[in-house]
Amino acid sequence: MPEPVATAALLAASGLTPVKPESPNAERISDVFWFITFFAIVIFLVVAVPLVVFILRYRNRGRPRHEEGPQIIGNTSLEIAWTAAPVIILVLIAGFTLYKLPGMSLEAGNELEVQVVGRQFYWQYRYPNGAVAINKLVAPADRVVKLRITAPDYDVIHSYWVPALFGKMDAIPGRTNEVEFKGTKVGTYRGQCVEFCGLQHAAMKNEIQVIPAEQFDTWVSEQASGQASGQSDLGEQEFEGVCATCHGDQGQGFIGPALSAATVSSPQSVEQIIREGRNKMPPVGRGWSDEQVQALTGYLTQRFGQGSQPGG
Amino acid sequence: MASRVETPVYPVPWYQGRVASWVTTVDHKRIGILYILTSLIFFLAGGILALLIRTQLIATDVDIFSRDTYNELFTMHGTTMVFLVVVPIFAGFANFLVPLMIGARDVAFPRLNALSYWLFLLGGVILYSSWFAQGGAAKAGWTAYPPLSVETVGNGQDLWIVGLHVLSLSSLAGAINFLATIHNMRTAGMTWMRLPLFVWTIEIYSALLVLVLPALSAGLTMLLLDRQGWTHFFLPGDGGDPLLYQHVFWFFGHPEVYVMILPAMGIISEVIPVFSRKPIFGYKAVAFSTVAIGFYSLLVWAHHMFAVGLGWGLDIWFMVASLIIAVPTGVKIFNWLATTWRGNLIFETPMLFSLGFIAVFTIGGLSGIYVAAFPFDWQVHDTYFVVAHFHYVLFGGSVFGIFAALYYWWPKMFGRYLNDTLGKWHFWLTFIGFNLAFFPQHFLGLMGMPRRIYTYTDSSWEVYNLLSTIGSYVMGVGVLVFIANVIWARRRSPRAVNDPWLGDTLEWFTTSPPPPHNFDKVPYVTSSRPLRDLRRRLAGERV
Q1: pLDDT per residue as tens digits for the range B438-455
Q2: Interchain contact B355–A (C-beta under 8 A)
Q3: pTM for the complete prediction?
Q4: ipTM for the complex?
Q5: Which of residues 138-177 of B touch A (CB under 8 A)?
Q6: Which residues of B touch A33 (CB under 8 A)?
């Protein structure tokens, strides 16, 4: 890695600069950061250096309290100067931000539109072909992905964000917000819910895996057909993304009770609980399609039902 | 043999008793002291909550508190510091100081003043009683966004709403009182351009409260009705809109930020000239920048909502309005700096906290420019970057100002000095601890750590969190030193003279502590520094 790139990566990894951007709009946000940082350092020095110099230079040095400094009550031209200079700097900052703004919208015409729904306490994605995914979004590289972000009427506000790819956007019940990104590098990028949404806010994580575009097309159609025929990993995704948050990675119980053969014996009662919620448990499966529910009940029966290995 | 002198026995009416006289008082000075001491007790409570929060976040996967408890901790910490500490303690300083500074006998409505204190105490008690409510204390954050705050089960949230309602009434009564006092009760010669700068900030503090508290009350009422009534103002399932609450709340909430910082700016505008032995540089600029900040603070509320999808049109407007506020703020900072230029700088504790204010508040102002640029705010909104930003403003600004005021006016309020050596320890522990606690949080935010999470698993966040927790403990030690200082002042401190700092303003003309009627007579005011004029006149110099 050449020197400057290594330094930039180090700065980003240590939090001194934003997470290294891997999408053109995140790149522009990072540019705004650097532009403001330049002026912030200048302004800080303009205040801090005189402050320290005056403290040292004009310190009391044993002078009596009643000895006054020169009784200067102001200076109009100086005061105009330090009103005007910030105005100029702020105009520059606003101007640069607005100059960078249009490119933060990545409308391209052939974008992949994915619906993102924030729920207590998971993210659900729906691809154009109907394939559903939980928490982990798979996206094609070098293609604009438009996220249509919302939350159901009966849920609360969440906020969707992957620091390396785009700025955050709230998932608000009754509204749909849009944000785009274009993953320029294959890889997995993490984020988590950034609007306080209740008990397990801290556990509401999400990630975006950017894969080569041609692989994506195959992947997404396999997902759709697999889910339609009941032959997919959707049930496992739902367990890990939705149930495990409160019932534990192994269903051993955490905030919610342990999952056992008895609790999952009746698919009807499982469906009722996930659709309606119970006590502290939110109705995590309200609004799910029958395929989604069956994927989960099937998975739970297989993992925790009669005859399965104890502890999964 | 010395003869015993019989103490004459007068019948002391019950309301002049040791405790009863404080309960029944309508004296602005006693009410001010009640306000300040009550706020300081809540400051300790809110500070303990903060230390518990920082302890939970000291490392990855710490499991000291349950999730519910953690959510209660940060909700009550924020609510306490805003509504039970910073706003009321300024009401306390304003109560004690405004009549003295403008040469008045008392505030305009002394009984209303007593009511506003007792409502404050009642509101605080209601809020803190929510710890014992069914379902625990409020846990939807100090902003209480619906639908979460509507769906939260238990009565903690309802007590939170009722407590804030009572506190709003208290602040409203207090604010009206200050406005009436400042407008009508200034002594002869005390024109607006001779008004102490602290009084200017209280004028704007009060005006803002009168303008925006009704919005808070409306929002809280709708929230309570959504929870307990049959309405759905904020519930989209029935045609309501959760964003309506955010607009109403921040229409109150952003001016509230300036309600909490302007009086601190007023305090250091009093302290810096006195400890520089110079007049304030550009009195009019400092006074008018206060007015400008107050005005623009009413136009920027939705910069708290850049991530809700307002649309670029509104985003741009709220960015520009927010950036404009940086101009009058910068004017103040440069004027304070220029005040110290060529002065005879005396580094006693009030001055240390004031200079510390300039240093850290500047950082808070600069991070404010970052978050005003809305595309960058999309990146750091609701992360620890914002937590760092508002603590630089509200602790580095407001609380540093509060400590400066306590050290500066303590001799006037209680007739005893706070110890300067202990004060210096207090300052340095606070200054170092503060920066250690909050500067690393900028980095956490840039790395993507959200606010209001009870734990985290990313080990790369651990170092900064550890530093932050250590810093918070150092600040805690600083507060212990302050408590020791208060005890020292009560037990050992020498009697204070009337004018220990050679001040500029009228409160130093009367005794320490002042008599119930404040002044036997008030000198005619011919400038913004009446006491300096008087000293020079007495020394035979031309004023």
Answers
A1: 999 999 999 999 999 999
A2: yes
A3: 0.95
A4: 0.95
A5: 140-141, 145, 147-148, 151-152
A6: 370, 376, 379
